Each structure stands twice: as C-alpha cells, then as structure tokens.
Amino acid sequence: MAVGSRTIELTKIAAAALADKLGDEIVAIDLSEQLVLNQVFLLVTGSNEPQLQALSDEVQRKLAEAGEKPVRKEGSGSWILLDYTDLVVHIQSTELRNYYMLDRLWNDCPKIELNLAKAVR
C-alpha cells in the first residue's frame, strides 16, 4: 500500500516546520509496505531540550493549521514522539538518535523526498 497523498502533504508540512526551527538530519521514511498502523516516520535531531520542545511545538502548530491534532504525544527531554496515526514524528537529541538509529533500523525502506531548503547558519 502506497503512502496516501494527505499523509505526504502532512509530512512535508511537518518537515518544513522542523526546518524552520533549524532541526538537523530531517528524514522521512516510507513504512507503508512494512507497518499496518503507520505510513511515515519523520525523524529530526535537535541540539538541546529547549530546541526539541520548540521543534515539537512548531510541528503541532503547523499541523493544527492544516486541521490535524496528534492522537498521542509522548516523551519530553531528549525524545518527543508525536503520533498523527499515519505520520509519526520522532524528535530526538543527537545522543538518542545515534543510540537508537531508527534510520538504520528502517534503512531498507524508501525515503520520501522533502525538498527542504538548506538553512544558512
């Protein structure tokens, strides 16, 4: 089953929100052929807890503007998970991103092209 167009749209909105708040290593993984409940994992790395919270807040704000609210929000500190059913956003510290390596776990799954502009720092 392919990822639905609405899920792709929400993924791109969330990814743009993460880029606006200077999230690093933004990756969208297409899980539609692997999982029944979720279609996309959107991963991002933040450098500290305030940035992780800002990333979470911005994604929730932008997706609320698009008419979506998370079904579930878990975690705080170094890993925040926002569950929008078909889209799950993982906001992680560098340490936890490197430890759990979700990118590597789902390495065989296709990536979704996000076409994000590179932020100048």
What features would you describe in this structure?
It holds the Pfam family RsfS. This protein is of the alpha+beta class and 121 residues long. It has a single domain, classed as Beta Polymerase, domain 2 (2-Layer Sandwich). The protein is built from four helices and five strands; from the N terminus they run H-E-E-H-E-E-E-H-H. It has a five-stranded mixed β-sheet with strand order 1-2-5-4-3. Helix 1 packs across helix 2.
Present the secondary structure layout.
Blueprint: H1 5-20, E1 24-30, E2 40-46, H2 49-65, E3 72-74, E4 79-83, E5 87-93, H3 94-100, H4 102-105
Parallel strand pairs: 2-5
Antiparallel strand pairs: 1-2, 3-4, 4-5
Helix pairs in contact: 1-2
Name its key features:
121 residues; alpha+beta; Beta Polymerase, domain 2; five-stranded mixed sheet; 4 helices; 5 strands; globular
